[in-house]
């Protein structure tokens, strides 16, 4: 195999199924095509929903996206779990519905926040009618673990059903956790991912109050601009990404397509501040080093980084410093892309969406461009892919970086084939 | 307080609520156990909650646990109507709860 620093092994953990429901498309391949065409999923909230929020930019999933969700699921599940289930069904089908011992199948699907829209609707009901008619589905739908539980139930995953909570790193943490389950030989197949559906005037007001959101209402498609000099915050998006992951020998035995490999994961915490990133990025850098060590790779093996890059002034700068610390001189040869420029920030789904896109980028040998990068921040020196997608030139290793409020840092390393 | 319904009207209400909840209760024999209709515990609670919402009666946990067939659901509503007919309006649980929540 031509891949830098790595040979395929039967014990490799490989990705055989992908499912994405995103602001730029329904379906993994449709979303990737839209990304390569440089489409933006950022719009304005309908005027009737702007309410009193000072920010009304959003990156929504199309109303027509939830094709597999039944009326009962629609009533019983929060939108976050509906998006997750839709993506899981795509991923499971894409993987060819693998036969697996249910005791060796895990569902690890996170949400950064949980069933927030259900909490809001439960409150609205209570304000109007009190207890009478309070839907019994409110509690099961608002639980942050409902997506992993629903997906475990769908496929009979008895090994584990876990939703990890680390805000915007929750989805990447799901991948890191599942990789440990494989390495501890607890499982043969896992359904892994993240989901989020919290776009609402209350949520937008709350994030706006933290001064975290872009206010570029006059030009929505250009509002999310990671690493750009004139970035002014992130755009709140929604969506889900699910990966079906298994041992290479298991995938090869059943002759299914292998999208790529899940090679390593590294996790740290800044332990510095509840919402602000450590400006030095030192612990984010350590997560990247741990991920590379866990993959038995060096920084120079990495061809591109899919950055967390939410487009906030402080976050992007801290990430640049983290990349500098983790990669050193090797950073000069690393391409960087930031998918949030097109899809906004999917919170708990952000990590798995970026990993799914990175795996497809390796498979198609094409790195999507970062939108809206007109003037690279003069404090940042990165080779950001812009203008047009960039072909892969030297093999196939990507590092996906993720971080979340709370100081959570997660890096995931994926490989081609 | 709502109009007093007879058994046929309660059965009709039950079918309407079933339709809202995507539970197919049409053409079901009234003595059919709910288990056999494929209604799980959450389905039953959703059905009861929707009936509470439509009738204004509070169906207590004790009454819920006694419901095993469609007939039991209907009888439960009829019984609540009878109980409320002989009670003063200010003793009605639902009325009190609505008062509290404003």
Q: Short summary of the structure?
A:
The complex is a heterodimer of chains A (417) and B (102). With 417 residues, chain A is an alpha/beta fold.
- What are the segments of chain B in which pLDDT stays under 50 over at least 5 consecutive residues? 94-102
First-residue to last-residue Cα separation of chain A: 9 Å
Succession of helices and strands of chain A: EEHEEHHEHHHEHEHEHEHEHEHHEEEEE
Form type of chain A: globular
Strand content of chain A: 15-25%
Helix content of chain B: 55-70%
Question: How many H/I helical runs of chain B?
Answer: 5
Distance between the termini of chain B: 17 Å
Shape of chain B: globular
Biggest sheet statistics of chain A: 12 strands, mixed
Oligomer status: heterodimer
Count of helix runs of chain A: 13
As a percent range, the share of helical residues of chain A equals 25-40%
Largest sheet, strands/sense/barrel of chain B: none
Tell me the β content of chain B: under 5%
Description:
The complex is a heterodimer of chains A (about 425) and B (about 100). Chain A contains 13 helices and 16 strands. Chain A is of the alpha/beta class and about 425 residues long. In chain A, strands 1, 2, 5, 6, 7, 8, 9, 10, 11, 13, 15 and 16 form a twelve-stranded mixed sheet that branches. In chain A, helix 3 packs parallel to helix 6 (about 145-155) and helix 10 (about 280-295) crosses helix 11. The longest helix of chain A is centred in the first third of the chain and has 16 residues, at about 80-95. Chain A is globular. Chain B is mostly helical and about 100 residues long. In chain B, about 60% of the residues lie in helices and about 0% in strands. Chain B has helices at about 5-20, 40-55, 60-65, 70-85, 95-100. Residues about 95-100 of chain B have low confidence and may be disordered. The interface between A and B is medium-sized, with 16 and 17 residues.
């Amino acid at each position: 195999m031509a891949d830098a620093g790595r040979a395929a092994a039967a014990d490799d953990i490989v990705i055989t199924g992908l499912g994405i429901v995103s602001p730029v498309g329904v379906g993994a391949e449709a979303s990737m095509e839209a990304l390569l065409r440089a489409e933006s999923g950022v719009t304005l909230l309908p005027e009737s929903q702007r309410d009193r929020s000072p920010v009304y930019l959003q990156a929504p999933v199309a109303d027509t996206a939830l094709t597999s969700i039944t009326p009962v699921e629609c009533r019983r599940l929060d939108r976050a779990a509906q998006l997750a289930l839709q993506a899981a069904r795509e991923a499971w089908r894409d993987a060819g519905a693998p036969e697996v011992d249910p005791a060796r199948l895990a569902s690890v699907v996170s949400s950064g926040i949980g069933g927030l829209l259900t909490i809001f609707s439960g409150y609205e009901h209570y304000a109007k009618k009190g207890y009478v008619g309070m839907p019994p589905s409110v509690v099961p739908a608002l639980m942050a673990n409902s997506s992993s539980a629903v997906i475990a139930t769908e496929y009979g995953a008895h090994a584990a059903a876990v939703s990890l909570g680390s805000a915007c790193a929750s989805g990447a943490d799901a991948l890191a956790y599942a990789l440990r389950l494989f390495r501890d030989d607890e499982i043969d197949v896992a359904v892994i991912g993240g989901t989020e559906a919290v776009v609402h005037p209350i949520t937008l007001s709350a994030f706006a109050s933290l001064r975290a959101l872009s206010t570029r209402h006059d030009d929505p498609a250009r509002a999310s601009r990671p690493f750009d000099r004139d970035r002014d915050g992130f755009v709140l998006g929604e969506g889900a990404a699910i990966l079906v992951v298994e041992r290479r020998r298991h995938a090869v035995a059943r002759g299914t397509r292998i999208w790529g490999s899940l090679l390593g994961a590294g996790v740290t915490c800044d332990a510095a501040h509840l919402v602000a990133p450590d400006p030095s990025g030192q612990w984010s850098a350590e997560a990247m080093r741990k991920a590379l060590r866990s993959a038995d790779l060096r920084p120079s093996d990495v061809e591109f980084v899919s950055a967390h890059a939410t487009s906030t002034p402080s976050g992007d700068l801290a990430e640049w410093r983290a990349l500098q610390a983790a990669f050193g001189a090797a950073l000069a040869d690393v391409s960087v892309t930031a998918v949030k420029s097109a899809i906004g920030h999917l919170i708990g789904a952000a990590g798995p969406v970026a990993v799914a896109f990175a795996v497809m980028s390796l498979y198609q040998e094409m790195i999507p461009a970062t939108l809206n990068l007109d003037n690279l921040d003069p404090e940042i020196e990165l080779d950001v892919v812009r203008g047009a997608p960039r072909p892969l030139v030297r093999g196939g290793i990507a590092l996906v970086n993720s971080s979340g409020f709370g100081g959570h840092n997660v890096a995931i390393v994926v490989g081609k084939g | 307080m709502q109009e007093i319904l007879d058994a046929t009207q309660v059965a009709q209400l039950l079918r309407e609520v079933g339709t809202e909840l995507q539970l197919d209760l049409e053409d079901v024999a009234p003595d059919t156990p709910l288990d056999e209709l494929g209604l799980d515990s959450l389905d039953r609670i959703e059905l009861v909650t929707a009936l509470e919402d439509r009738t204004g009666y509070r169906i207590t946990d004790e009454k819920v646990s006694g419901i095993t067939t469609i007939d039991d659901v209907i009888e439960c509503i009829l019984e609540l109507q009878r109980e409320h007919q002989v009670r003063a309006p200010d003793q009605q649980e639902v009325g009190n709860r609505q008062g509290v929540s404003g």
